Amino acid sequence: MKDGGHITLTLSPGSGSTSGLVGDERGRKSLRRAWNQLPRCQRNLIILGITALCVTAVLCLSGDQLTATSHQDEDPKTAPYHLRLQNPHHHPPMPEKDQPEALTEAALPAPEDKRQPHPEALSDKFNDIVAYGDANSAENVVRLPETVAAQGPPQAVAVPPPENNKEQDIGGIDILNNVEEPIDQQQQQQLHLSERELLDQAIQSPLKLGGVSFKEHLRRIQPLLAKAQHFHGATNERQSAVVAAFKHSWAGYKKYAWGHDNLKPISQYSHEWFGLGLTIVDSLDTMYIMGLDDEFKEARDWIDHSLRFDTKRDVNLFEVTIRVLGGLLSAYHLSGDTMFLAKASELGNRLLPAFLSPSSIPYSDVNLGDLSAHAPKWSPDSSTSEVTTIQLEFRDLSRSTNISIYEQVAHKVNEKVHELEKNHGLVPIFINANTGTFRNYATISLGARGDSYYEYLLKQWVQTGRRDNDNLILDYMQAIDGVLTELMRRTPREHWVYIGELINGKDFKPKMDHLTCYLPGTLLLGHQNGMPDSHLILARDLMDTCYQTYIMNPTHLAAEISYFALTDKDEQDIYVKPNDAHNLLRPEFVESLYYFYALTGNRTYQDMGWTIFQAFETHAKVNAGYTSLGNVKNTQSTRLRDLMESFWLSETLKYFYLLFSDDRKEIDLEQWVFNSEGHPLPVYPLKT
Ligand code: DMJ
Fold first, then answer.
1. Residues forming the annotated binding site?
2. What are the tens digits of pLDDT across the range 570-604?
3. Candidate from 651, 653, 655, 675 with most ligand 1 atoms within 8 A of CB, to mutate
4. CA angle, corner 542, sides to 541 and 547, nearest 5?
5. Is the pTM higher than 0.85?
């Protein structure tokens, strides 16, 4: 330390004196005098020597010694749980044969062998796992994500900026390389606002971010903005066939329903739901991935000039979040076009009134123009899957704009639901936004109103960098435990595995919605990220059943709902009731096929998908697009229903296209996470 041009050395009490402060002071003075009497060059030499000694000492210590904590000596068996879990991101590379990818591929039998309840390839492993309860418990994560690479940004390939996007020329770094920006005055002010004040600010000024215009805010966060990703387009006949199906759908929509939510392809008319051009917004990223530049540009221009969010009309928070907010954000991340981010920000602001409930569980309905929200007209409750399937999108909006409020309010829902009592980790399908509690005796289901609660537990954990011991992943593991013990059954003769429901929260019903066929893909994604082998086995068995629900019908298309035999007195192991025989062009099973192909490389899943794609071509394709069907049980009487839902373009066709890709990592699942509507969003590095 410099003190009037001199170096002040301080001795500890007792080292220079025995008489307390006075002696200490005297010692210090005489030392200073002696030091001052030394010639300057000698003093410099001494200082240099001391510095050299210190540097040598530091260099001799290894990195581990330098960062050692008191936990280092703890017995791994008795150390706290979080210390026993290794950080997945620092897991050493495994020898080739132990790579989970190889394990998964080898462990999953070809679909021909599928109907064995315990195939040989897995039986030892299966027995080793013993009881599901133990194997799946939160205390017993079998493997950690060995294949999860160090979290880096998605490989951004620089492409020329779109002409229509001037702000694109900024050449900012990838969004995932979040750089520390100096905190400016605007940010300083924001830091001092409470959550409620931030919420009010965003709601009162939906055309602003952090109190300033979008343009100004985006200018300030330039280094955080996304770069365009590059896709090469179809590379084989199957992919080309899917692109042709997309173009056919798009042409019909453009001709008969442009600017409206959905196409009615039989009556060749439009169908309105929220008045937000759903099909256009939902299709953006599919077109970008397929390399349909002209279609992407016309959609982009419609969004820029004609998409309005200020109409006084109630919309459903969940549907608009997964389709519109998710669609805009995904289009932004893939194309790098900040127009999409500005639109997403306005929509995010206008959806925020949903969170002004007494419990922080959002209301299901929001009036985007009025900026008000309420419970559905038909019930005081929100659907559980709906309030828990908005977090990927709201978090991404926060991370993309560097405005925290969206993530804050959405994450609070995670916390509230986490605290609620569950049935073996399973949740009732209704929750009250005023009281924040589940409806008593509500059904438990992995189909309608329950499904994506489970999906988003895992996917949010993946999105946020796969943090050890996170409540999201602990809740997910507990829930899948509950699925295995409370909901999973096999049919008596053919041993088809299915997931039933608990009516009133207790009475088992052997009914499975087609919606539940998303689960095998999610389970495999989880297994790839360290979940127990029991998840893999369930994924594979359920995959077989879902495929059977397609090929058992003469159309090779699945019904909306299937029932399963409880005893061998039931005539068929799987059957469809007349009122449930419709098909809405839903994506869930194709989505699972995509995950199975993307994560294992096994091309048999492509062949299964091709059978289904051809079935859609045969039975759902009409002059003006593709239509939902009323009956999959009779090829001569499919009873065309006249609706092409936007998820046909956002999900079903996108997953077909990616399933048929020669490059199974065309979208790298370590870098991207698909929202519930099939829109890829970036995975963020673990926050430290
Ligand atoms: C889509 O909107 C989403 O996949 C949602 O999560 C469930 N329903 C449809 C598709 O079936």
1. 676
2. 999 999 999 999 999 999 999 999 999 999 999 99
3. 651
4. 105
5. no
